[in-house]
Amino acid sequence: MANHKATQKDTRQAAKRRDQNRYQGKTTRNAMRDLKADGDAKSAKAALPEVISKIDKLAKKGIIHKNKAANLKSALTKSVAKLS
Predict the structure, then answer these.
(1) pLDDT tens-digit readout, 48-79
(2) I want to staple 84 with a disulfide (CB 3.0 to 4.6 A). Which of 41, 51, 61, 79 is the partner?
(3) Rg of the Cα atoms in the chain
(4) Among residues 56, 60, 57, which one has the least CA distance to residue 70?
(5) pLDDT digits (tens, 9 = 90+) for 5-37
(6) Where are the alpha helices (DSSP H) in 1-84?
């Protein structure tokens, strides 16, 4: 455990950020999973912008790399286009 007050605070902040990042990442992965499992083209098209927005937010915050975000969005868009 850290000995300095500033280091203890930094440890607390890092744990808080890690929990928030894990929550956001897991929520986005669940949304992507649900979108892929959705067999209805109309509802998938409606849900796609929301999922893309979540992916963009993860990339903006640095939780995932911007190229990974682009690859995920491309794959999801292709899978939704395949449904129609």
Answers:
(1) 999 999 999 999 999 999 999 999 999 999 99
(2) 41
(3) 17
(4) 56
(5) 999 999 999 999 999 999 999 999 999 999 999
(6) 5-37, 41-61, 66-83
Let me know how long the chain is. 84
- Residue 1: its pLDDT value, please? 67
- Joined together, the tokens standing for residue 47 give 């849900």
Question: Tokens 């796609």 appear where?
Answer: 48
Find out whether 41 and 84 touch, Cβ atoms under 8 Å.
yes
* pTM confidence score: 0.86
CA angle 21, 16, 24 (to 5 degrees): 20
Dig out the tokens for 78 from the structure: 């292709």
Angle at 49 between CA 40 and CA 66, to 5 degrees: 125
Question: How distant is the alpha carbon of residue 28 from its chain centre?
Answer: 4
Domains of the chain: 5-83 (1.20.58.110)
